[in-house]
Design goal:
By secondary structure, the chain is mainly α. Helix content is 75%, strand content 0%. The protein has helices at 2-22, 31-36, 43-70, 75-102, 108-113, 121-153, 158-204, 211-216, 231-246, 252-259, 267-295, 307-315, 318-351, 358-379, 384-407, 414-433, 443-460. The chain is globular, with a radius of gyration of 22 Å.
């Protein structure tokens, strides 16, 4: 049985690798092309790539595991996240595109530091360091997600999947840079939609009738639309995920993709592709997560994050199991490589901007960061869901408040910008440490704390408009 799975897995994964390597044909061997694809990517590719980077490993491993455990009320994570994401997009996307082109920017830290034209060197360096730290953890979670799937479907030790993923990422990232990442993102987006649809159809054709009634009997409250608790608890739960969506404008790996958008491409058209895929795939994920409880009853030894590969093995023909595994594997890899490339940009553009060999340095950084991510993935025992939410929330807590202030054309001194970037992640960590994340997602107080710092500064200077010149 494993022979057929191996063959289809290798063939489809090989196709993704070829697509990534083929991007070399369009490579211009410049730093801008390696890090931003020459800012010439069409709207459809940017939209599908950004949403795949946003969701892949988290969606089919973490989100399905959450739905398996929590039931229908997990849909509020989707509703809050998508609405928050859309609000952030409408608020900031056009400004991000304008500033990145006007200042010829190649990294997220440079975007923040040059927003008002006057370069803030300390802020730039700090943003680079935080990006490097948090995204390396994020990349580790993606390597872990793909390896979890492979451990079930191919009976591999998790270490094998982590190392193989890293090796393939290294191969096409060095060759094609972010263009390779974007192209493979799009390919895996298509295959993942097809794979999830096939899996859902396989589940629905197993003779299961009266599904809603059976799901309702799984456990009390499993099919309740709202999570358990009073109105305040429910509101905080939804509000937390709304802020989780807003945190997208604090994610360097996704903002950089928006910066690659072709000058003539329509932002609205890009949004159409982005949110169409987002909502469709999120819906499929929740449906599969719910039905998985009928196929795989809960037991004390079962890891909910293995629900998708376990169901694929139980319900699908061997050849489709291999396709599904390749799609999951490629999804995590294409997300991981975007994180690694964002870190490379931070190293060469923000932390060590005077390097004479920026392109070579960026490629060396890719190798170095991948090694660190592999070490984290092999040593961390947290779930993919927790790893992703921690990295995502800390990035959002650090950068979203400053981005919001900039979008509303507020000029602030560099020391205040740095304080806002530092205070958010600190509050996030403290909130988690005291176990308050069960009350509301920790990104919410993290983001709000940065805005509170600005508010205090503004109140102190309310006697006159803020006219503080940016320090150079």
């Amino acid at each position: 049985r494993y022979t057929v799975i191996y063959i289809s897995f290798i063939l489809v994964l090989g196709l993704f690798l070829i697509i990534g390597l083929f991007s070399f044909a369009k490579s211009k061997k410049t730093t801008e092309d390696y890090l931003l694809a020459g800012k010439s990517v069409p709207a459809i590719l940017v939209g599908l790539s950004a949403v795949a980077t946003n969701n892949s490993g988290f969606m089919f491993i973490g989100m399905i595991g959450l739905t398996y455990t929590m039931g229908l009320s997990s849909i509020w994570l989707m509703i809050g996240w998508v609405i928050g994401d859309f609000i952030a997009s409408m608020l900031a996307l056009r400004h991000i595109r304008r500033v990145s082109r006007k200042e010829n920017i190649h990294s997220f830290g440079s975007l923040l530091a040059h927003w008002h034209h006057h370069p803030l060197k300390k802020l730039k360096a700090l943003s680079g360091v935080l990006t490097l730290f948090f995204l390396t953890i994020y990349a580790a979670s993606q390597l872990l997600a793909g390896s979890k799937a492979a451990s079930v479907l191919l009976n591999w030790p998790i270490e094998y999947g982590v190392i193989i993923s890293a090796a393939i990422i290294l191969a096409y990232s060095l060759v094609g840079g972010i263009r390779a990442s974007i192209w493979t993102d799009v390919a895996q987006s298509i295959v993942m939609i097809i794979g999830m649809t096939l899996l859902l159809l396989s589940m629905l054709t197993q003779g299961e009738h009266m599904l809603i009634e059976k799901l309702s009997n799984v456990e009390p409250g499993y099919m309740n639309f709202f999570p358990e608790g009073n109105f305040i608890h429910i509101s905080l739960f939804i509000l937390g995920w709304l802020f989780g969506g807003i945190a997208i404008i604090g994610q360097p790996q996704i903002v950089i993709r928006f910066m690659t958008l072709d000058e003539k491409a329509s932002i609205n058209r890009m949004r159409f592709y982005y949110y169409s895929w987002f909502i469709l795939f999120y819906g499929l994920t929740i449906a599969v997560g719910l039905l998985s409880r009928l196929v795989i009853p809960e037991s004390s030894g079962f890891d909910p994050e293995l629900a998708l590969p376990t169901m694929a093995l139980a319900l699908m023909p061997e050849i489709l199991v291999g396709v599904m595994l390749a799609a999951m594997f490629a999804a995590t890899m294409s997300t991981a490589d975007s994180l690694i490339l964002a870190c490379s940009a931070s190293l060469t553009e923000d932390i060590f901007p005077r390097s004479k060999h920026t392109l070579k340095a960026a490629k060396f950084a890719t190798f170095f960061i991948l090694v660190i991510a592999v070490i984290i993935a092999l040593s961390n025992n947290k779930t993919v869901f927790s790893l992703v939410l921690d990295a995502w929330g800390m990035l959002g807590s650090a950068f979203v408040p400053l981005m919001i202030i900039y979008v509303f054309k507020q000029k602030i001194p560099e020391w205040l910008a740095i304080l806002m970037v530092i205070i958010g992640p600190c509050v996030f960590v403290i909130w988690n440490y005291f176990g308050l994340s069960s009350l509301i997602y920790s990104a919410t107080p993290g983001i709000l704390s940065g805005l509170v710092v600005f508010g205090i500064f503004h109140l102190i200077h309310r006697a006159s408009p803020i006219k503080t010149k940016l320090k150079t």
